[in-house]
Design a protein that fits this description.
Number of strands: 16
Mean pLDDT: 91
Strand order of the largest sheet: 4-6-2-1-16-14-9-12-11
Helix content: under 10%
Order of helices and strands: HEEEHEHEEEEEEEEEEEE
Number of helices: 3
Largest sheet: 9 strands, mixed
Radius of gyration: 25 Å
Length: 289
C-alpha cells in the first residue's frame, strides 16, 4: 500500500523547489587566492561542395569553468550575445554581437533571468563544471579554406592538387593538422610533393594523409600527387569521398563568440583573478572533390 505514484516528487526535491536550496555547493569554502578559469571550446562542422559552395556550416560550443572562490559568491557571465548587445547599442556601442542559439545551462544558472533578459547569473559549484552549451549557424569564421583540383586521365592515371589556406590571424597557428585526401582504391604508385609537413599514401585508408604539426595563420600550402592506378577488369567510377580535415586552433573561435565579462559578487568583496582560453577544433570538416 505504500507505493508512490511516479509523478510525485521526493520530499527532498520538493524542499529544494520551495526553498531554492543550493545543493551543488557547500557553505564555508575558503581560498587564499580567488580564481576562475574559463575555457571556451568550439567544434566547427563544415561541408563544402566541389565547386566551393558552403553546403553546411555550424559551430557547437561549450563553456567549461573551474572556480576557486571563497564563500557563496554570485557570478554574472557575459558573452558578445547579439540580443544583449543590441539592447546596449543605444549607449553608442556599435560592435555587432553573435547570434547564439540553443543555449543549455548547468542547473546552477537562473533560467528565469536568462529567459527575461538573457543575463547568465549563478552561484557556481566549486571546482570544474560545464556552465553552458550553445550553437552558432551564421557568419562562421572558417579556419581553413581548401581549393582542390582532381584530374582522372583514363583508367590508369589520376592527379590531385590541393591548396590549403589558413584564414585566421598570422599571430595564431593551428596544431595537429591532419588532412586526409582520398584516392582511388586501385592506386598502385604515388608521387607526392608538398610545401610543408609530411604527406604519404596510406593504402589502408585509401588516402594520402598529410600531417602538419604547426600551421601558421594566413599561410598557404600546396600538395600535388600523381597517382598510377591498376587497371581493373570491371572499371567502376571512383566515388570521390570528401577531403577530411582535423585541426586545433588555440585562441580562436569559429563562431566569433568571446567572453565580455565575468563579475563575482561576494559579501566579503574580495578580488578575483580570471583567465580565459579559447580553442576551436574540427568536428566534421569536409570538402567534396
Amino acid at each position: 500500500g505504500n507505493v508512490k505514484p511516479q509523478d510525485e516528487p521526493e520530499p527532498q526535491q520538493l524542499t529544494k523547489q520551495i526553498t531554492g536550496a543550493i545543493d551543488w555547493r557547500r557553505e564555508g569554502i575558503r581560498y587564499k587566492k580567488n580564481e576562475v578559469y574559463i575555457d571556451v571550446l568550439e567544434s566547427v562542422n563544415l561541408l563544402i561542395s566541389s565547386s566551393g559552395n558552403i553546403l553546411r556550416s555550424e559551430v557547437t560550443g561549450r563553456v567549461q569553468m573551474n572556480t576557486k572562490l571563497t564563500g557563496m559568491p554570485e557570478c554574472k557571465f557575459g558573452l558578445n550575445d547579439k540580443l544583449v548587445i543590441e539592447k546596449e547599442t543605444a549607449t553608442g556601442r556599435k560592435k555587432p554581437g553573435v547570434e547564439i542559439d540553443d543555449c543549455t545551462f548547468h542547473r546552477c544558472v537562473r533560467l528565469g533571468k536568462f529567459d527575461a533578459d538573457r543575463t547568465i547569473t549563478f552561484i557556481p559549484p566549486d571546482g570544474e563544471f560545464e556552465l553552458m552549451r550553445y550553437r552558432v549557424n551564421d557568419n562562421v569564421n572558417l579556419p581553413f579554406r581548401l581549393i582542390p583540383a582532381v584530374q582522372e586521365e583514363g583508367q590508369t592515371k589520376c592527379s590531385i592538387n590541393l591548396k590549403v589556406i589558413a584564414n585566421f590571424s598570422e599571430k595564431l597557428f593551428a596544431t595537429h593538422v591532419v588532412i586526409k585526401v582520398p584516392v582511388p582504391k586501385n592506386t598502385s604508385k604515388s608521387k607526392i610533393k608538398n610545401s610543408f609537413g609530411r604527406a604519404k599514401y596510406e593504402p589502408e585508408q585509401n588516402s594520402i594523409v598529410w600531417r602538419i604539426k604547426r600551421f601558421p595563420g594566413k599561410a598557404e600550402c600546396m600538395l600535388s600527387a600523381d597517382l598510377e592506378l591498376v587497371r581493373t577488369v570491371r572499371p567502376k567510377a571512383w566515388a570521390r569521398p570528401p577531403i577530411n580535415v582535423e585541426f586545433q586552433v588555440p585562441m580562436f573561435t569559429a563562431s566569433g563568440v568571446h567572453v565580455r565579462f565575468l563579475r563575482v559578487y561576494d559579501k566579503a568583496g574580495y578580488h578575483t583573478n580570471r583567465w580565459v582560453r579559447y580553442i576551436t577544433k574540427a568536428g566534421g570538416y569536409q570538402n567534396k572533390i
